[in-house]
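Researcher: Quick test of sequence recovery. Tokens follow.
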């Protein structure tokens, strides 16, 4: 707030009225006025003296150290101020400065009237002539102003055509072409003219016989400023100006002042009681003497009567013509020299006291003019004389005015360093006090550097000011009006405040504060300053005397506000903020009443009802002057009004949006919505909410709302309405069943405030003031934002690039090993945690909004606020119900890949500014301070500087990862009806699936297939069982790995590509197996865009799944099986029937190489079945089975030899592959060996045997018989296995000729003839053996005890038991024994081979010693038992037929 009117030297300032002229913009006018105001102090040494001898009364040469202070105003002083003249001459403007814009001279004509001065060749010259005409009009309009001057700023004259500048117009070049002294020179020239014209004004005062005091009923109308402007058409009524009459004649146009006002809209709107224009523009010679108006005291002498009659020849005329003012004091008496005065004759003459009163008042007025003219020493002299006269005749008002002006003179002299002596008239009348003051500087301890004259003035100042106030307040016939009294008290308190701020010392610093107004930026704190005189309490006590009374007829609304604002400035400077707040509250109440009254008058003038609304639209478009009270635009409300109301609210602890004054700047709004600023704002509001009394705060805000509505101030209505809701709220983030967040005002008031905000905002939008909006009253609007999970088919799953090469190879094959890690198995939980979005695809978010108030919150728009990658959020609207938490769904689409973070929401509530709200998911409430440690605003500000005592505020955010665009693949069709299939056990069916890429721009260049079915779960569970044997584990793994329910049929890898918008078809194969009820085909697809080797870190795939319902029915079941050895020779026709007829060597079909497999097969399908069993050697048998029947099939299978039947059972799972597997159950080595033998022989049989079936009736179906149900008992193993050592026994007759021996290959010999028993021992193992052969002849078909009694029937040469040499691996040894049959009959010879010793313990020359046994072998011995000597028996004895030779 400007404090110019509070400066103690305000009566010494010269008021200058600054007006626009011609075409000029507001900002340009303000900039030019600021340039002038920079030179508002003009020193007399820089002013040239006027050369006219009758204009040198105020010559600057008499006191060059003085200075003139200009008070530049852009408005006409109100009548209440003008009425105080001449008691306070500084209130009446003495200079008029009309500012024109030089840039507009050549743009367009300033006036459409034809110039009366002749033709102007250029537009600039025409406009300059127009400016001169308007200057003449201003002289007619403002006749009492002494100096009229037009200043054309930014004027750049043409060098070719020089335009003559009329008298009274001065040009100022642009800033870049101006000198430092350009404006200063202009001000000095105007000051020189003003000093010259002030001589005429002073002479006119000297010619007066009586001067009225303010507040006294005027006897001579027009003297005290009530007719400061001219209403008549006679320009001779103007005050004498400084120029001769121009020879240029005016235009003959008869346009009225209204026409001129419409032609030049830059002129200020005049008061209806003080019209600016005149009714005639005819030129006339200006007078040389001032006007005697009719507002002075009534005439009491003949001279006065004659003077009045001469000045007013026709009193009844509505347009009286004023007479000319004489040029000197003697000129006023020249008109009455023929009249004889009778004042001094007789006892009825005028009282000498009355003449002294007039003389003393004139002296004080002349001293006041000297003070304004900078002649401070002359002013002091005149004022001392006038004060002495006023004191002697008890003229207390003018006595006080003289003392006030003397004080100002002393301060100004001290400011320029001129030594003075305090006049005796200023000292108290008490002798004791005078002596104490005279001795004070020597007796008291003071600053030795302080001049004595300043110390003397310092000592008397408080008492002197009290005396002046006492003189002004004295009750008598003349009483000072409240306005000058209160303003004088304000100036005195301002003077004492400046002295107090300088620690009670009158020095250069304090004088600068009093005269120039250089106050410190910071105000005083609440700490006491008791040692400083005058104290703050004394100043406040004096200041409150200026508080206006409640009588509205004594002061106008503007004057009352003027006084109250001065009181607030002084209280604010002293640090009395609460007292200042009370005064501001009173000021608001006064302004509300005045504004409502002005609004009512303005509405009545334009013909509308005052209650028609907050404001009417035509008031913003009217060009008339009738609605001046309501004609307020965006820039008509000064910035100081916001500061004024903000200071009031801050003093009472109103919870406002921000401590700083809000400016309509989007950058400021964005900066104020960051997380840190919002947290700081919440903490500051929390501390402010605990300060002060809530009901008082609410009343203050209601008063501010009423004040803003009365202006009308849209911004104020919005701001204070939202502040009232914010102050009434709890300011917490409530949790479930915890804090009470309800506001403290009623629901009806909340509805009224929200409606008021909405209504005001709508009006602002209608009038083009779109930037005006309220601030939302709850900082915890957004309580949470969550991302809805994407559909499973669109969820991107991250994978490391390391898994891509191996997985791609495994997944592209037809048979997929289930034991290899598959990273593409669907994992929805992991995908939800990762929070991955895809560029260009819409994601859905859930926003939790809270409304702790009992009103509906209408959200016009809400969108997500993000950081990082580009993101486009959808915008939606909603309505939040009263006192609830509401969830709103909002979608958004990322536009680019990268890191994305959701930090909050940008919300536009109806009537409020669109702003960002952070996310506060956790409940929060401030800690209530139970112990008050400080009071006042200083304590509140100190608490804001300290760390916040409550719980911390942690705004939340959602981190997301946006990947590059990905295709969207769906299953378009499948050849299966309703994705279901019926299949028989062992049957394989082929179906196709068509995939479509919905993306229009992104292909799918990576397609990987995975399968899941209902049989995998039980198998995986069985695999984890610790009680399962190795054979069972192998079986489970084999079913998983080799018997997959579904698989992809072989396809070309190049076809694994789906172009944008295209389709691709893939074939799959399904296998019927028990337990299969459902299955899933999972397709993992992605768009890599680059070769696999160039992938940086991760890639993402999507999944599309086809769920199948599968019904598996039984086909051919294996009911029972057995293995039988073949005894005897199999006839060749049987082998031929079995499909072995093409075998060349009949020996390969011998019974020694085969065994019989007996299978009971049951047809469980209601159709005829043909079963086909086939061995790897070409033997095949077919069997026809009727529905429901069981057929037994006998099938010869080759016997099996296994090198190591006790080898460990392998594991198909790579994680279980070891050298051996130990059974978890504790079994004996014999059982372990038996289990391993059964496992290996069963596997060998299954390798050599296969079975299939096909239907012979109904739909054609075919499949394989599941033979893995075969289980081998030890007896079966013996029938199947081929021993490690083979024993072949044959006998031949050694005496028979060779031809006969070849014929007798059926082991037939003759009695008493020598024969040879030939035994061939074959070692099929990989290690040598040391055999011992035992031959056991016996009689056939005899009991055991008889069969072995053959010693008298069969003779042999040698021993039947003999040790054979070592038989190497994969070799044989032959033993021949001579024998002779002694009788006829049938004999059988069997043999057995027993290991003599273990091969490992043997060391020979040919077989060096083996390496020491390893730990593995030791462990193997522990599992299978220690290795022992073995024995092998011949499978069939050699039958020998003995007969007689014929």
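Model:
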């Amino acid at each position: 707030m400007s404090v110019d009117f509070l400066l103690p030297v305000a009566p010494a300032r010269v008021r200058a009225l600054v007006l626009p002229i011609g075409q000029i913009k507001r900002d340009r006018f303000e900039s030019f006025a600021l340039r002038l105001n920079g030179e508002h102090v003009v020193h007399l040494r820089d002013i040239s003296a006027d050369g006219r001898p009758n204009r040198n009364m105020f010559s600057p040469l008499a006191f060059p150290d003085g200075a003139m202070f200009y008070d530049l105003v852009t408005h006409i002083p109100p009548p209440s101020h003008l009425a105080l003249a001449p008691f306070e001459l500084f209130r009446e403007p003495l200079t008029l400065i009309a500012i024109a814009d030089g840039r507009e001279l050549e743009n367009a004509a300033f006036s459409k009237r034809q110039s009366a001065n002749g033709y102007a060749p250029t537009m600039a010259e025409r406009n300059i002539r127009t400016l001169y005409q308007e200057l003449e009009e201003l002289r007619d309009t403002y006749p009492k102003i002494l100096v009229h001057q037009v200043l054309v700023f930014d004027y750049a004259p043409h060098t070719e055509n020089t335009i003559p500048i009329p008298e009274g117009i001065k040009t100022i070049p642009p800033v870049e072409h101006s000198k430092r002294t350009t404006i200063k020179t202009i001000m000095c020239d105007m000051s020189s003219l003003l000093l010259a014209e002030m001589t005429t004004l002073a002479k006119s005062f000297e010619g007066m016989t009586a001067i009225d005091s303010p507040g006294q009923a005027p006897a001579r109308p027009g003297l005290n400023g009530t007719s400061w402007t001219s209403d008549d058409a006679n320009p001779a009524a103007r005050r004498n100006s400084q120029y001769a009459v121009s020879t240029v004649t005016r235009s003959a146009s008869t346009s009225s002042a209204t026409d001129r006002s419409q032609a030049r809209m830059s002129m200020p709107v005049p008061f209806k009681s003080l019209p600016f224009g005149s009714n005639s523009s005819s030129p006339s010679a200006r007078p040389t003497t001032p006007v005697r108006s009719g507002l002075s005291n009534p005439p009491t002498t003949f001279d006065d009567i004659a003077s009045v009659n001469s000045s007013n020849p026709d009193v009844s005329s509505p347009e009286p013509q004023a007479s000319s003012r004489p040029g000197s004091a003697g000129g006023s008496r020249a008109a009455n020299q023929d009249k004889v005065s009778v004042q001094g004759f007789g006892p009825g003459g005028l009282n000498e006291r009355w003449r002294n009163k007039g003389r003393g008042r004139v002296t004080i007025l002349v001293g006041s003019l000297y003070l304004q003219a900078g002649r401070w020493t002359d002013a002091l002299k005149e004022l001392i004389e006038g004060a002495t006269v006023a004191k002697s005749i008890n003229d207390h008002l003018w006595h006080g005015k003289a003392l006030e002006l003397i004080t100002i003179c002393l301060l100004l002299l001290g400011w320029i360093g001129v030594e003075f002596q305090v006049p005796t008239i200023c000292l108290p009348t008490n002798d004791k006090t005078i002596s104490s003051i005279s001795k004070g500087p020597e007796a008291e301890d003071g600053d030795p550097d302080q001049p004595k004259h300043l110390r003397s003035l310092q000592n008397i100042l408080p008492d002197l000011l009290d005396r002046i106030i006492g003189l002004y307040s004295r009750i008598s016939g003349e009483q000072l009006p409240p306005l000058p009294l209160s303003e004088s008290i304000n100036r005195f308190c301002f003077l004492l405040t400046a002295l107090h701020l300088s620690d009670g010392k009158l020095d250069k610093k304090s004088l600068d504060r009093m005269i120039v107004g250089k106050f410190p930026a910071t105000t005083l704190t609440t700490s006491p300053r008791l040692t400083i005189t005058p104290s703050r309490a004394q100043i406040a006590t004096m200041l409150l005397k200026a508080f206006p009374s409640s009588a509205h007829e004594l002061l106008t609304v503007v004057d009352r506000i003027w006084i109250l604002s001065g009181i607030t400035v002084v209280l604010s400077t002293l640090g009395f903020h609460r007292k200042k707040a009370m005064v501001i509250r009173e000021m608001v109440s006064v302004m509300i009443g005045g504004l409502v009254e002005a609004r009512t008058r303005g509405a009545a003038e334009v013909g509308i009802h005052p209650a028609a609304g907050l404001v009417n639209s035509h008031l913003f478009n009217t060009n008339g002057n009738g609605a001046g009270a309501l004609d307020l635009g965006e820039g008509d409300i000064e910035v100081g009004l916001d500061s004024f109301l903000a200071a009031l609210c801050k003093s009472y602890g109103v919870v406002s949006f921000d401590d700083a004054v809000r400016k309509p700047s989007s950058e400021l709004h964005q900066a104020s919505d960051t997380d840190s600023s919002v947290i700081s704002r919440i903490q500051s509001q929390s501390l402010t909410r605990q300060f002060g009394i809530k009901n008082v705060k609410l009343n203050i805000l209601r008063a501010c709302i009423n004040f803003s509505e009365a202006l009308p101030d849209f911004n104020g209505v919005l701001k204070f309405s939202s502040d009232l809701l914010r102050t009434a709220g709890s300011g917490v983030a409530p949790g479930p069943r915890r804090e009470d967040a309800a506001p403290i005002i009623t629901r009806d008031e909340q509805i009224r405030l929200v409606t008021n905000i909405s209504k005001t905002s709508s009006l602002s939008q209608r009038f083009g003031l779109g930037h005006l909006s309220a601030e939302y009253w709850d900082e915890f609007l957004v309580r949470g934002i969550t991302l809805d999970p994407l559909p499973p088919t669109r969820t991107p799953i991250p994978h490391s690039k390391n898994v891509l090469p191996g997985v791609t190879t495994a997944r592209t094959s037809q048979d997929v090993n289930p034991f290899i890690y598959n990273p593409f198995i669907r994992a929805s939980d992991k995908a939800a945690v990762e929070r991955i979005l895809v560029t260009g695809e819409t994601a859905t978010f859930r926003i939790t909004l809270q409304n702790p108030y009992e009103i509906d919150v209408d959200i016009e728009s809400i969108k997500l606020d993000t950081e990082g990658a580009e993101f486009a959020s959808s915008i939606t609207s909603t309505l939040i119900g009263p006192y609830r938490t509401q969830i709103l769904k909002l979608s958004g689409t990322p536009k680019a890949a990268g890191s994305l973070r959701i930090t909050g929401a940008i919300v536009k509530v109806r009537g409020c500014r669109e702003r960002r709200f952070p996310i506060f998911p956790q409940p929060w409430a401030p800690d209530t301070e139970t112990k008050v440690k400080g009071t006042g605003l200083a304590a509140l500000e100190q608490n804001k500087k300290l760390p916040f005592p409550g719980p911390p505020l942690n705004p939340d955010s959602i981190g997301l990862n946006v990947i590059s665009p990905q295709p969207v693949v769906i299953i378009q069709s499948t050849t299966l009806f309703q994705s279901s299939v019926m299949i028989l056990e062992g049957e394989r069916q082929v179906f196709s699936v068509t995939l479509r890429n919905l993306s229009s721009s992104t292909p799918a260049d990576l397609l990987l297939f995975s399968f899941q079915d209902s049989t995998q779960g039980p198998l995986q569970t069985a695999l984890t069982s610790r009680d399962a044997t190795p054979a069972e584990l192998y079986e489970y793994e084999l079913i998983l790995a080799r018997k997959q329910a579904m698989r992809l049929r072989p396809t070309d890898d190049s076809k694994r590509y789906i172009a944008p918008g295209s389709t691709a078809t893939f074939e799959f194969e399904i296998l019927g197996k028990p337990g299969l009820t459902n299955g899933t085909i999972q397709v993992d697809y992605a768009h890599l865009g680059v070769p696999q080797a160039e992938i940086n870190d991760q890639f993402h795939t999507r999944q599309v799944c086809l769920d199948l319902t599968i019904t598996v029915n039984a086909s051919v079941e294996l009911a029972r099986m057995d293995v039988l050895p073949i005894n005897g020779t199999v006839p060749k026709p049987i082998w031929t029937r079995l499909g072995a007829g093409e075998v060349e060597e009949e020996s390969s079909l011998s019974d020694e190489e085969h065994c019989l497999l007996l299978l009971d097969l049951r047809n469980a399908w209601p159709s005829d079945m043909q079963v086909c069993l086939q061995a790897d050697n070409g033997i095949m048998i077919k069997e026809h089975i009727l529905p429901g029947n069981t057929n037994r099939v006998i099938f010869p299978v080759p016997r099996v030899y296994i090198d190591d039947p006790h080898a460990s059972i392998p594991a198909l799972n790579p994680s279980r592959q070891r050298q051996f597997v130990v059974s978890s159950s504790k079994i004996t080595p014999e059982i372990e060996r038996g289990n391993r033998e059964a496992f290996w022989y069963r596997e060998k049989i299954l390798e050599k045997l296969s079975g299939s079936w096909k239907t012979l009736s109904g739909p054609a179906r075919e499949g394989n018989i599941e033979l893995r149900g075969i289980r081998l008992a030890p007896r079966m193993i013996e029938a199947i296995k081929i021993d490690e050592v083979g024993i072949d026994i044959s006998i031949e007759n050694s005496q028979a000729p060779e031809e006969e021996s070849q014929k007798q290959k059926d082991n037939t010999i003759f009695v008493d003839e020598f024969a040879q028993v030939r035994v061939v021992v074959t070692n099929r193992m990989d290690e040598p053996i040391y055999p011992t052969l035992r031959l056991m002849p016996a009689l056939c078909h005899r009991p055991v005890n008889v069969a072995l009694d053959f010693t008298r029937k069969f003779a042999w040469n040698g021993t039947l038991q003999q040790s054979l040499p070592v038989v190497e691996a994969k070799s044989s040894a032959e033993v021949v024994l001579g024998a002779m049959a002694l009788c006829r009959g049938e004999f059988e010879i069997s043999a057995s081979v027993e290991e003599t010793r273990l091969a490992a313990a043997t060391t020979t020359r040919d077989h060096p010693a083996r390496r020491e046994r390893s730990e593995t072998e030791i462990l193997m011995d522990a599992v299978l038992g220690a290795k022992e000597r073995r024995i092998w028996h011949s499978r069939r004895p050699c039958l020998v037929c003995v007969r007689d030779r014929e």
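The chain has a mean pLDDT of 78.
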